[in-house]
Every structure is written in C-alpha cells, then in structure tokens.
Amino acid sequence: MSTAREAILEGVRKGRRVAQPSSYVLPGWSGDARALFLVKARASAAEVHEIATLEGAPAAIWAILNAANATPRLHIPADSPLNELPWQRAPGLTLSHEAPSGSDSAVSRADCGIAETGTLVFLSGARTPSSWHFLPGSEIVLLQRDAILPRLEDVFARLGQIMPATVNLVTGPSRTADIEQTIERGAHGPRDVHILVVG
C-alpha cells in the first residue's frame, strides 16, 4: 500500500521531461564592435577617452581630475592590480585605499565592454569589490580595446562555466527620473563615468 508521499513522488517522476538544448544561434556580427562601443558609451552620457597604453593612464586620469577641478585624490582598492601603474607620472595626485564617498573619485578596470549598448562589465573578485562601483561620485574606468565584445551573450560565452559571485553591468552615469520625471544623476552610483579605452 503506497503512502501519499510515494504517490506524489511517482507523479513527479512521470511528469519529468528531459530538457532539450536551445536551438537558438546568435546571428553573426559583421560590424566594428570597438567603434560602436565608443558611440554607444558616449550616447549614455559617459565621457570616453582613448589612450595608447595602460602606462599612460595615470597622466590621463590626472588630466581628467584637473579639468573637472576635482580633489586630487583617487581611490583604489588596496589589492587592486591598478596600484602597480606608474602613478609617479601624475605628481600631485594622492592615492587612497579607503572606500570612496559620493564626493570622491575612484578608478577601476572593466573586464569587458559590450558594443551593442556601450556597457561596462565588472566581475567581482577578491581584488575587485563590487561595492566600489556604487560609492564614488566619479568613476574612472580602464577598458582594454580588445576586451570589447559585440553583445552580452558574447560576454557569457567567454566566461563559460566559471561565473563570479556578481556581474555588474554599468551603462553611463547613474540616473533616475523618479522625482518629478526630472533626470537626476548620482542617485544610485556615480554622477560621472569616464572610460579610458586602452590600445
């Protein structure tokens, strides 16, 4: 005599189906992903700058802060590989390892860029805390040109089975129109986003 539990489990077993793999295939991409990324990122109100090498980043960042009359202090996570850049090329700039506030500037490095939307992709990790993308008033982001991919699906294809705890997608400065339908910047993150495309 079967119990109610066994009857339920038997019903579940009979109702199971083997999942079929998706037959959807992304259409080919024939455009220039790097050029499209620049257009889309600028359209999202991000400031986009192009630099030749990663070593040129400190001087470029120093110029950005000077042009904005910003405090000459830049926040970088203590374990970030960005600490190894030649910061001596930006005399007068102070580096801080404290978490930034809404009036501070911080620098980070994006893992990928998405050409279709001008979006930056940040993968969380021990040396790349996710919270730093929401704290500063101004975020300066380094992005390697060869890390710009056509679509979000291409990013996940590159990741494969190894997924980080968090994937942050950032498209331009933080904005909201919740208050009287007026666009306000900096509601949930940086008011300003500067992207340095390297290479």
Q: Could you describe the 3D structure shown?
A:
- By secondary structure, this protein is an alpha/beta fold.
- Helices cover 21% and strands 24% of the residues.
- Strands 1-12-7-4-2-3 form a 6-stranded parallel beta sheet, sandwiched between helices. It has a 4-stranded mixed beta sheet with strand order 8-5-6-9. The protein has a two-stranded antiparallel sheet with strand order 10-11.
- The protein is elongated, with a radius of gyration of 22 Å.
- 32% of the residues are buried.
Distance between the termini: 73 Å
Radius of gyration: 22 Å
- What order do the helices and strands follow? HHEHEEEEEEEHEEEE
Q: Averaging pLDDT over every residue, what do you get?
A: 87
Query: Helical percent range?
Result: 10-25%
Derived from helix and strand composition plus strand pairing, the structural class reads: alpha/beta
Side-by-side strand order of the widest sheet: 1-12-7-4-2-3
Give the oligomeric state.
Answer: single chain
Number of strands: 12
Number of helices: 4
Percent of residues in β-strands: 15-25%
